[in-house]
Each structure stands twice: as C-alpha cells, then as structure tokens.
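thread: overnight batch results

M.L. [08:02]
morning all. the overnight job finished for the chain we discussed friday. pasting input first so we're all looking at the same thing
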Amino acid sequence: MYEVTVTKPFVAQHYLTVPNPGPEGELHSHRYGVTIHLRGESLNEFGYLVDIDRVRESLDNTIAHYRDETLNDLPEFEGVNPSVEHFSRLFCDRVLDEIDAPEIIEIEVAIQEDNDAGASFERSV
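M.L. [08:03]
and the structure it wrote out:
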C-alpha cells in the first residue's frame, strides 16, 4: 500500500458544549496540527498516488476555512460538540471533497490539539 502524508499547523478556537466541561467550556484557542494520510494500492500514469501539490492546496483551503475561527460558530458544528474527534471527521470530509485522485482508497485525518492530545478519523474512499 502506498501512502502520501501532508502536515500543516493552524490556530482555531472552540468551547465544549457537554455537561460539566470544566475549563474547556470557556472559549479558548488551540494550536492544531493536521496530518492527512492518503493510501492506495496503485499509482497513476505519472507514478503518483496523488499530486502532493493538490493535497497541499486542498489542505490549505480547508485550513483557511477553520483558521482563527470559533468552531462552534460554523454551520457544520451546529448541534455538535466541537470535540477533536468530530473536528477530524468534518475536516476529512471537507479536504476529501477537493482531492481528485481515483487511486486513493483510504484517507485518515489526524488532528493534534496543542502538544498533548489528538484524534483521528479514517475511512474508505
């Protein structure tokens, strides 16, 4: 299996909406690091699983949507606790919408929250 990985940092804000969230229930920022893992068993005619520049562009566009925003205020988080788990799934859907690479059969989005926590979402394409 081939894998292409791209990683980028950004900052966004949120507050958790669960009962008794502690300090996480107050608006606060995180320095996020997102890593996209794209996997497939074959390469295209140029020897690529996917054009890394297109992955970078998709990742940049997705980060631009979230950078410096309060996640709770975005439509995709309406009625959803903005946990890093939900964030990784929503981020995955958005970035995947922009990547056109038929060789990709799996995607994983891992989001690191500051330096001590994180979550990932993986699915078949």
